[in-house]
Amino acid sequence: MNITYYGHSCFGIEVEGIYIITDPFIRYNELASKIDIDTVKADYILQTHGHEDHYADTEYLALRTGAKVISNWEIHSFLNGQGILNTHPMNIGGSWTFPFGSVKAVNATHSSSMPENTYGGNPMGFLISAGGKQVYFSGDTGLTMDMKLIPLWAKLDLAILPIGDNFTMGYQDAAIAAEFVECEHVLGSHFDTFGFIKIDHEKAIQHFSSKGKKLTLLEIGDSITI
Ligand code: NI
Ligand code: MN
Q: DSSP labels for 155-171?
């Protein structure tokens, strides 16, 4: 499994030639100006919630690529209303097997709304099992006891967690989350994009290593293979 960072909470996950994009936010992210959205491949879009720093490029990317958008019921309905019909609705607790592997929708403690503040349903995270790897993409969330359920469902190879604080948990709570989900390796998301979430990278990495965990912070455009 190959994972590319497109900035903020937007990652490209490539599994055996299938491309999954999380929370598309590229054209409106000044830090991601070197990424050309028109070269981003997408077969599936995993949409955690409707806030614009996760959704701003969803319709654009879905229209260009024809990717299937996997999200909660309310975002699925909203997209259908926009004429985007290749969608798959889920809700928290449910799993589905797609051609690339399985996805389980899990709880996230956050909020969700669509453009013009229409109702966005509940925010969610995703547990992805694909290509022999298991990845927890938490979406925007605070630290929650529900994370202790994750090891009942998966032995994680990677957890992608927000670390920027203010709108989500900060890196200290994310290190506790790594313990709750029993994962050694965390890939940071939701940091540096706006003034409220700028962090000291060295401090964050040091904090994780003091807890016996590894925090990876990718430069936008860079990739890792797990
Ligand atoms: Ni949000
Ligand atoms: Mn956000």
A: --SEEEEE-B-SSS-BH
Q: Residue 65's closest CA among 89, 40, 85, 87?
A: 40
Secondary structure (DSSP) of 108-140: --S--B-GGG-B----EEEEEEETTEEEEE--S
Average pLDDT, the chain: 98
Q: Give residue-wise pLDDT tens across range 62-116.
A: 999 999 999 999 999 999 999 999 999 999 999 999 999 999 999 999 999 998 8
Residue 116 pLDDT: 86
Is-contact 21 8, C-beta < 8 A?
no
Cα 109 to averaged position of ligand 1 atoms, centre (Å): 10
CA of 105 to the centre of ligand 1 (A): 16
Tell me the CA–centroid distance for residue 178 and ligand 2, in Å: 19
Q: Which ligand is nearest to the CA of 51?
A: 1
How remote is the CA of residue 54 from the centroid of ligand 1, in Å? 7
Distance (angstroms) between ligand 2 centre and the Cα of 79 equals 19
- Percent of the chain exceeding pLDDT 70 equals 100
Of how many residues is the chain composed?
226
Please tell me the distance between residue 54's alpha carbon and the centre of ligand 2 in angstroms: 6
Predicted confidence at residue 81, as pLDDT, reads 96
